[in-house]
Amino acid sequence: MVTVAEAEAIIQAEVKDFGVEVLPFERALGRVLAEDLRTDRDLPPFNRVAMDGIAIRYAAYAQGVRAFPIAATQAAGEEPIALQDAASCIEIMTGAALPASADTVIRYEDLTIANGTATVLAPEVAQGQNIHQQGKDRKRHDVVAKANQRVTPALVGMAAAVGATELQVKKLPRVVVISTGDELVEVQASPLPYQIRRSNNYMVKAALQKYQLHADLLHIPDEVAATEQHLRECLQQYDVILLSGGISMGKFDYVPQVLETLAVERLFHKVQQRPGKPFWFGKHANGVLVFALPGNPASTFMCLHRYMLPWLDACLGMASPQRHAALTQAVTFKPPLQYFLQVTLTVNEHGQLLATPLEGNGSGDFANLVEAEAFLELPQHKTDFKEGEAYRVWTFR
After folding, report:
1. CA 253, 254, 259, 261: dihedral to nearest 10 degrees?
2. pTM of the predicted model over 0.85
3. Last residue of a domain, one of 270, 289, 315
4. Same domain for 310 and 255
5. Are 194 and 183 in contact (CB under 8 A)?
6. Domain total for the chain?
7. How confident is the model at residue 253, as a pLDDT?
8. Which residues sit opposite 145 in a β-bridge?
9. Which of 45, 238, 289, 352 is 20 to 30 A from residue 109's alpha carbon, by CA?
10. Is residue 223 domain-shared with residue 348, that is, in the same domain?
11. Cα–Cα nearest to 362, from 307, 296, 301, 295
């Protein structure tokens, strides 16, 4: 049996790069950028008018001119209209390109317009005001989004703005999520009194979808030959096998012995933690990793978020954020195990993240996970955890 820290180190030692692929930018949401995104021209690409109003030459205002005849009107997207007379103005709209002959914009709120003349009411006008200068945000070829970050809606918008119709993103591993157990039936079925519907596999698949990773699903009955056949095929078709159930001490928990038969090297089996103590992790000679998670829902969910998803983040070049939350009440846990406490999260008036424990009924309490927002990781060397003490938190909402 290994400690949580040892299990984490063993798994992180198996981080690998799955390569790069190119996607249309509008399909890249949620994926991880594989190269820096750069501008193809200055941002903004011209001196952009920031307020509806008039464009003038400041020198005329400095010389005392306050009433400016309107020479023309320019909308956003139109070619700039040159000022022929230094004492006149162009009525101009937000987003328009400022004419080279003008250098200052006065907003409508600081004007009166009558009989084709704009009269300045503002007591003070500053040269260059209300203009978003060309290249102020970024110069041509500047980096606007660094690699190794998740593509967000804002990043999709930036890709469109700089003409990046395709984006290089990190490839995702091929993953299959396998449920085991004869007590499990399809979601659409009406279970007999001694049966339950499959749910862990859908829960795991849903958690992976935030990476835009669409895992395949497979169910294996509690039968040695079928288990061996399916796992042998999966070892040839996938990069990662995620199993739920079949790894404890039960008479029909065949997964560990079948994995050994298939020459999957066991890197550890059992972790000093609750929930999720029976967790099994191994590697086949062809590089396929096997995360065999305990079948109880809370155990499956915790092991996924504590071990597999941080591994996936590292493979994609992203660091899993380390956050801590303070207990809102005292907790006692006596077994010499690392305890992952289900909690809800709030923020107090000082900006401190707070964790409130949820009463549960053990690792099989699936309903409790719907209310919980995170696991608070309580170290195994303590039994009493006081109100106000802060510990690492693993969020899943």
Report:
1. 150
2. yes
3. 315
4. yes
5. yes
6. 4
7. 65
8. 37
9. 45
10. no
11. 296
Q: Three-class SS of residue 21?
A: strand
Residue with tokens 């698949």: 205
Tokens 């203009």 label which residue?
131
- CA dist 387 and 380 (Å) reads 17
| Inter-residue contact 111 to 119 (CB < 8 Å) | yes
Secondary structure letter of residue 308 according to DSSP: I
Q: For the chain, how many residues are written? A: 397
pLDDT tens-digit profile of 341-386?
999 999 999 999 999 999 765 544 567 888 899 999 999 999 999 9
How buried is 289 (Cβ within 10 angstroms: 0-12 exposed, 13-18 middle, 19+ buried)?
buried
CA dihedral for 381, 387, 393, 395, sign (positive or negative): positive
C-alpha of 286 from chain center: 30
Residue pair 169/49 in contact by the 8 Å Cβ criterion: no
**CATH number of domain containing 350:** 2.40.340.10
Run of H or E residues at 394: strand 390-395
211 and 262, same domain (yes or no) = yes
Whether 254 and 205 map to the same domain: the answer is: yes
Instruction: Please give the residue range of the domain that contains residue 143.
Output: 20-43+136-170
Residue finishing a domain among 82, 116, 132: 132
The answer to whether residues 235 and 350 belong to one domain is no
- Compute CA distances 364 → 26, 249, 329, whole Å: 40, 17, 24
Task: Tell how many helices (H) and how many strands (E) occur in the chain.
Answer: 9, 28
